[in-house]
Design a protein that fits this description.
The chain is α+β, with helices and mostly antiparallel strands. It has helices spanning 3-12, 28-43, 47-70, 86-98, 102-109, 111-119, 127-135, 141-147, 165-168, 171-184, 186-189, 195-212, 222-225, 246-250, 253-263, 312-323, 326-340, 363-369; strands at residues 193-194, 216-220, 230-231, 234-240, 267-272, 284-292, 301-309, 342-345, 348-351, 357-358. It folds into three domains: 3-109, DNA polymerase beta, N-terminal domain-like (DNA polymerase, domain 1, Orthogonal Bundle), CATH 1.10.150.110; 120-184, no CATH class; 191-382, Beta Polymerase, domain 2, CATH 3.30.460.10. Helix 3 (47-70) crosses helix 4. It binds 2'-deoxycytidine-5'-triphosphate and magnesium ion.
Length: 382
């Protein structure tokens, strides 16, 4: 990388949706160390600071060689790179000298950090709830189990009734229920899902959907689509192949499918989007816990599966919105707003001044409408 190239990068690369970011970064150990500090900010609810570290990680993932040069006086001065402030640069310097960052090591040894990090691994527990539980004096997952009166591995419907529209009337209760499920199934939900099984789950779900509505299609989005060998959950975006009538055909399908999966004993628990207090788009979706029978030698495994239903005219927007990464999505939104006067989210693209809607017919069209060069899903690991 020569000086002009760096100049170019530093000016255009503010938005991660302009940068091809591979899954495996050239210096994983540095990123891992910075990520500890990011996690520390996350569990403490320091969102601005967390975002700075996320951005630094994202930049480091593709610029490691450039960074290295930064610290070598015989190379050009590269302090102009985006999102690498004095503090983070000095941490990187420390890492390159010693293989560690003091602040990260301090954090890893901090009991509060350990408890909060453990708590947020549970589905249904975010940083805010984690701190509330910690303030109640709870320190370990076993203590959480006792607090919520959850018996590990026990997840039958007698102890945990289905989350449905009625439960949603009480967000508080629904949140608690979600945590109980997360705790009871924590050993299953804590395991990652191999690609092969992700594909099998998609196959099963689309087969069941075919019994309700013919002519649907799906794309598996999320980390799977970005090439991750193992996923924490499965994100499936579904639409109908009929461009003109698909919109009507997709309407209400979400509830029907979840109902059917439940009748077939394929779905243990589910939440509808009404339950989501922090939902960021208006698509019909179900956040389910799917009963996966992938490995015949093993028992059923519970897997988190998100089903997202989109009308054909917003299908590719939804696919792009659910492919991630989270940083890539954030910058897509920012780019659209700041540079194009447009609004992008998973449920659609519109022009701000006159609310004109765009209906891209392919994924490349989504990028074109936003004035972006197409980036392959496997290079969206910002
Ligand atoms: N997403 C988003 N904003 C959120 C949550 C998700 O933009 N608040 C998008 C970006 C994510 C994608 O949806 O990449 C799927 O979210 P996941 O949480 O499932 O994350 P991944 O699929 O990327 O990784 P994994 O499921 O393996 O943890
Ligand atoms: Mg996912």
């Amino acid at each position: 990388v020569d000086a002009t190239e760096v100049e170019l990068l530093s000016h255009t690369a503010k938005y991660s949706c302009l940068r091809p970011s591979p899954l495996v970064c050239p210096n994983q150990s540095l990123v891992k160390e910075i990520d500890v500090i990011r996690q520390g900010r996350n569990v403490e609810g320091e969102e601005r600071s967390m975002l700075s570290y996320s951005r630094a990680i994202s930049v480091c993932s593709i610029y490691f060689i450039v960074l290295y040069n930064t610290l070598n006086p015989s190379r050009p001065d590269l302090h102009g790179l985006p999102f690498l402030g004095v503090k983070i640069l000095s941490m990187i310097e420390e890492f390159l000298k010693t293989g560690q960052i003091t602040e990260a090591q301090r954090m890893l040894a901090d009991p509060r950090f350990q408890s909060l990090s453990a708590f947020i691994t549970i589905h249904g527990i975010g940083p805010h709830t984690a701190r509330r539980l910690y303030d109640l004096g709870l320190r370990t997952l076993e203590e959480l189990e006792r607090y919520y009166e959850v018996k590990p591995g026990v997840s039958d419907e007698e102890t945990m009734p289905l989350l449905d529209a009625e439960a949603s009337a009480n967000i508080e209760a629904a949140g608690e229920q979600s945590i109980k499920i997360g705790l009871a199934l924590r050993h299953d939900l804590g395991q990652t899902i191999p690609r092969e099984e992700v594909e099998e789950i998609n196959g099963t779900i689309m087969r069941e959907l075919g019994h309700i509505q013919k002519g649907c299609k799906s794309v598996i989005a999320g980390g799977y689509r970005r090439g991750k060998p193992q996923s924490n959950d499965v994100d499936i975006v579904i639409t109908h192949t009929d461009w003109n009538l698909g919109s009507q055909k997709v309407k209400g399908l979400c509830r029907k499918l979840v109902q059917r999966l439940h009748e077939q004993d394929l779905s243990g628990f589910h939440e509808h989007n009404v339950l989501r207090t922090h939902h960021w788009d208006s698509l019909e979706k179900a956040l389910t816990v799917f009963v996966s029978r992938h490995n015949s030698s093993r028992q059923n495994v519970y897997r988190r599966v998100d089903l997202i239903f989109a009308a054909p005219e917003v299908f590719w927007t939804a696919v792009v919105g659910w492919t991630g990464s989270t940083m890539f999505e954030r910058d897509l939104r920012l780019w659209a707003k700041q540079q194009k006067g447009m609004k992008f989210d998973s449920s659609g693209i519109s022009r701000r001044h006159d609310s004109k809607l765009y209906h891209p017919r392919t994924e490349r069209d989504v990028f074109k409408v936003l004035g972006l060069v197409y980036i392959h899903p496997t290079l969206r690991n910002a």
